């Protein structure tokens, strides 16, 4: 039966993401005239098991065009959801999955499906005259501003492989509020720029997520630079600012030999040596969170890593790819204690939400994450607040596709005023006093 909140039309078009590559954009209109629009983000260091990002191939945009995915929205996905009630997000997402018919959305593309899924939620929130963070929240749950992880130094696939590990991030554990956390992160970036300038390193070149991308002799040199940057900002490493790293080990893993290659240092490491090296970094620097310390296909080594690095937040990104089955296995085998959640790794809002809940029920911490290829959309910020993920990672404090998310969070904090609850340091699994993000 048609209601005022049923989907009356939708259309998609090809837009550009922050790397200048094509992506899918979609606008959904409801019978009452409410609209919602969303664009799909895109990763560079993608996990082996992610849902498929459909690209056209051929000559256009070097094969990266998204016209097929756009056509799939306008055709197959439109037919699947037209007339459905936008307030029934699980029903919408089931219909989108059924239209594709494959587990990894290989037929129509996760970029196509996600744009419809998110645009529908935004239209439904508009129809209910609610901010998106309230609309996506479970009933009775209150908004929670997340602890940000802020990219300061980039490497790997995001910075021309200037170092092998991908992200070095500041976690403002001394902050009392979200806005306080952003200011502390800003100070760390500035301190790190001053420190890098002083050492004659290039600070003008900015990586994909807005981080600095200086050419350094080793990963350890990057950790030293960040530690010095924190001090130069007048802050105490560990007390005011802790460090998170995304090793993104898939990027330098050779499945044929089972070894890891630090290209910059011209070293090959077996998994045990890599874990030893990371454990040493943790003794020398205030590291509280390590993402993808090993490759997604190196499951047994993850079990040893979890034992060796038991007091650190061990975060699975490529490892879990926001997939409930992989997370179930990870919980059973205790390979990590936190999950990175990226909606486009799975393709629908409902599936991403249920992975957050599954993780929380298992006592895992949750970090909602943007991609290295982003857009000016800010819905990710609302999902973090409404779902109470406790932590969020969206890149640096600069570049508009990054600040779109920070600015949305700053606005939500300001709107909530005295009622704004900030997750604080205990959202990080290794600093937790209670299960992270407990509603
Ligand atoms: C990651 C993300 C974001 P990408 O690895 O965590 O930093 O990168 O989107 O390239 O997968
Ligand atoms: Mg990652």
What does this structure look like?
It contains 13 helices and 14 strands. The chain has an eight-stranded mixed barrel with strand order 4-5-6-10-11-12-13-14, surrounded by six helices. A three-stranded antiparallel β-sheet has the order 1-2-3. The chain has helices at 67-81, 89-100, 110-127, 132-135, 178-198, 219-232, 271-284, 299-308, 324-333, 343-346, 349-361, 379-387, 400-416; strands spanning 7-16, 22-30, 35-39, 147-154, 167-171, 242-246, 253-254, 259-262, 267-269, 287-291, 313-316, 338-341, 365-369, 390-395. The protein is of the alpha/beta class. It is 37% helix and 17% strand. A hairpin with a 4-residue loop joins strand 2 (22-30) and strand 3. The chain has two domains: 7-129, Enolase-like, N-terminal domain (Enolase-like, domain 1, 2-Layer Sandwich), CATH 3.30.390; 147-431, Alpha-Beta Barrel (TIM Barrel), CATH 3.20.20. The protein is globular. The longest helix has 21 residues, at 178-198. Bound molecules: 2-phosphoglyceric acid and magnesium ion. 2-phosphoglyceric acid binds next to loops. Magnesium ion binds at residues 246, 248, 291-292, 317.
Please state the CA-atom Rg, rounded to the nearest Å. 21 Å
Poorly predicted runs of 5 or more residues: 435-439
What's the CATH class label of the largest domain? Answer: Alpha Beta
Give the N-terminus to C-terminus distance in angstroms.
35 Å
And the CATH topology of the largest domain? TIM Barrel
What gross morphology would you assign? globular
Largest sheet: 8 strands, mixed, barrel
What is the level-2 CATH architecture name of the largest domain? Alpha-Beta Barrel
> Into which percentage range does the β-strand content fall?
15-25%
Q: Quick one: CATH superfamily of the largest domain?
A: Enolase-like C-terminal domain
The figure for the number of domains is: 2
Number of helices: 13
Helical/strand content category: alpha/beta
What ions, cofactors and ligands are bound? Answer: 2-phosphoglyceric acid, magnesium ion
